[in-house]
Amino acid sequence: MKLLFLGTGGAVPRIDRRMPAVYLEDWEGHRILLDAGEGAQYSLLENGISPASLDFVAVTHEHEDHILGLPGLLSTAKMMGKEITVLAPRRLSSYLSKSGVRVASEIADRRLKISCIEMCHTTETCGWLLEWDVGFKLDLSKVTGFPKQALTKLIKGEPVEVNGRLILPEEVADPGHRRFRRLLYTGDTAPCPRAWSSVGWVDVLIHEATFADDVEPARAHEEGHSTVNDAVEAARALNASILILTHISARYDDLEKHRRAASYNFVVIPEDGDWVFVRF
């Protein structure tokens, strides 16, 4: 999976840190934009990605730093013959729909499901949970002699009949293999234990880290935002293999304070234009 961080800033732009936008391309060929901050289409074009190549844009909430790039991007794609589906929270979806935008509350497409997880911000906010069904990895010692067609169905999660007996995928699966792969993009949020409980676990967590460790957590939370430590605690709660921090306040000239505060097994703090490659 390829992630391109087009904009890693917060509400106030910097010359080196644009408004929130993350491009995601998976192994199934899906192209998704997570949030569409101001200038998102220009950032895509600078990286050789056509706005019309996007399948979906998933917007977390209605605050301007997350949506001002959406109208221009959708207009460009439409002129190029592509109508992009936008995922958004309910109130924003209603407004976009009345404006003629094709909207959806969730997506289930080619082994990928995208669904809204309600976050803890100052307005209605969807964290977007992306879940891929990668099928079952079979324990070869349990499927010796099975027809190839039966193996294919079992890998896809379908039961099969072999020698008059119904075989369920779970019976012959490698017990150490996970059928699903998960990524959660929080958008803006204060600490949100109810969201972590509803999700359970993820492989990759892209969490906002508006503030480092130089701001009182209570102040950050009142504003509906998180510190680096809050993001680390979320990653621990979700047992994330990879934690990626973004949405950095313009008060920081560099990422040193964030790096010092990010005490987790595997943390990435990208800058604008950075690619992150994830192998599941």
TrEMBL record:
SUPFAM superfamilies: Metallo-hydrolase/oxidoreductase
Gene3D superfamilies noted in UniProt: Ribonuclease Z/Hydroxyacylglutathione hydrolase-like (3.60.15.10)
EC number: 3.1.26.11
Single GO MF descriptor: zinc ion binding
Keyword terms, alphabetized: Endonuclease, Hydrolase, Metal-binding, Nuclease, tRNA processing, Zinc
Start and end residues of each Metallo-beta-lactamase domain: 30-248
Cofactor dependence: Zn(2+)
Superkingdom per UniProt: Archaea
Catalytic activity: Endonucleolytic cleavage of RNA, removing extra 3' nucleotides from tRNA precursor, generating 3' termini of tRNAs. A 3'-hydroxy group is left at the tRNA terminus and a 5'-phosphoryl group is left at the trailer molecule
Residues that coordinate or bind Zn(2+) 2: 65-66, 188, 247
Cofactor binding: number and manner: Binds 2 Zn(2+) ions.
Function: Zinc phosphodiesterase, which displays some tRNA 3'-processing endonuclease activity. Probably involved in tRNA maturation, by removing a 3'-trailer from precursor tRNA.
Quaternary state and interactors: Homodimer.
Family under the similarity heading: Belongs to the RNase Z family.
This protein's name: Ribonuclease Z
Source organism: Thermoproteus tenax (strain ATCC 35583 / DSM 2078 / JCM 9277 / NBRC 100435 / Kra 1)
The organism's taxonomic lineage, starting at the top: Archaea, Thermoproteota, Thermoprotei, Thermoproteales, Thermoproteaceae
